[in-house]
Design a protein that fits this description.
The chain is mostly helical. The chain is built from 14 helices and 2 strands, in the order αββααααααααααααα.
């Protein structure tokens, strides 16, 4: 299935959905098609109007939209998601405990104090292994498939609609990618929460997996999948759509010079800022479902609806402040690392979208939009 997705994306005539096309009268020699605002080398447009394969831009390690490009995007997702989620395990542990036992853990500071007193400094690292494995797998699917679906959907609606409805395009592509990413994440997320919130259950992933299998079978690892979708899909939709549009607005209204004139370091700073803004909104829209997931994986035999009723409206928002801090920082760091990986691996990094020339002519627009 994934192979067919990669092939469909690679063969798309809209590998980069936001291109400016300069159409010229046909001549005996081939004309060229260029991607506006990027460093991509001209692509040959044959006399019969069939697109030839895009050449690799000078200095780039791969062609935009190629299988190698998508795989490297997946690698960037592994590095960005796996590393950042593992770094905030102590905060995540306290956040989960605030959600499942608010009577014992009164606040973030109190949660840290109790956790340190009961388990010592090493106790704060509980659940690091399933966190690293699970979120690395999720990052592979999330970032890699987002790029794939973005190309497929832009191909389906056409270049002009891809620009006009780009927010919807970001939302659809990210939701599709996260659907598969959560299937990869669910088993490790269930193990992580069980280790962190059930006293005496298990100290390590190696100890937790056989116990969970013996108690509830394979369902123990996927009973939280639906609430995980409820948490992660809105989160990821906001993460990608808000980031893409915020990045576009920052370059248009805040950054005092065009993106092309910014150094790689300056571009990464803008990426971090856009990521943090997106992260705050991500935390808010996904928090109730996150609380349900935490409580569900702790409570044996309970359903998501049962847990939600038990918590009540106010209980669903327990631990929101630490999660805003955690997710804001996490999202910003993920986008920064992901973009830095692209820079390090010399991958194509298309600029924010611009209105296609054909649409400018239709609308009578002059200049960049």
């Amino acid at each position: 299935m994934f192979k067919s997705l990669f092939e469909a994306a690679q063969n798309s005539t809209f590998k980069s959905p936001f291109t400016s096309v300069n159409c010229q009268a046909a001549t005996n020699s081939p004309t060229t098609l260029t991607t506006s605002g990027s460093d991509v080398a001209p692509r040959q447009l044959a006399p019969n109007h069939n697109f030839a394969a895009a050449a690799v831009a000078q200095g780039d390690s791969c062609e935009f939209g190629s299988n190698k490009y998508f795989l490297l995007c997946g690698l960037g997702g592994i590095i960005s998601c796996g590393s950042t989620h593992t770094m905030v395990v102590p905060l995540d542990l306290v956040k989960c405990r605030l959600q499942v036992d608010p009577a014992k853990y009164k606040s973030v500071v109190n949660g840290f104090r109790i956790s340190l007193a009961e388990e010592g400094i090493r106790g704060l690292a509980k659940g690091w292994a399933p966190t690293f494995i699970g979120y690395s797998m999720q990052g592979l699917c999330k970032f890699g498939l987002y790029e794939v679906f973005k190309v497929i959907y832009s191909d389906a609606i056409g270049e002009e609609n891809a620009f006009l409805y780009r927010t919807g395009l970001y939302l659809a592509a990210s939701a599709s990618a996260e659907f598969f990413a959560d299937i990869a994440l669910a088993p490790m997320e269930a193990a992580k929460v069980k280790i962190q919130t059930t006293p005496g259950f298990a100290k390590t992933l190696r100890e937790a997996l056989p116990k969970m299998t013996a108690q509830e079978g394979i369902s123990a690892f996927y009973k939280g999948l639906v609430p995980l979708w409820m948490r992660q899909i809105p989160y990821t939709m906001m993460k990608f759509a808000c980031f893409e549009r915020t990045l576009e607005l920052l370059y248009k209204y805040v950054v005092p010079k065009p993106r092309a004139d910014c150094t790689k370091g300056e571009q990464l700073i803008v990426t971090f800022a856009a990521g943090y803004i997106a992260g705050v909104f991500c935390a808010i829209v996904s928090h109730p479902a996150d609380t349900v997931v935490s409580k569900l994986n702790q409570a044996k035999g309970a359903s998501a609806i049962d847990v939600a009723k038990q918590l009540g409206w106010s209980g669903l928002w327990g631990g929101l402040v630490p999660r805003i801090v955690m997710i804001g920082t996490l999202t910003a760091a993920q986008w920064f690392i992901y973009d830095a990986v692209k820079v390090f691996l010399r991958m194509p990094r298309p600029p924010p979208p611009e209105m296609p020339e054909s649409l400018k002519k239709k609308l009578g627009v002059t200049g960049a939009q």
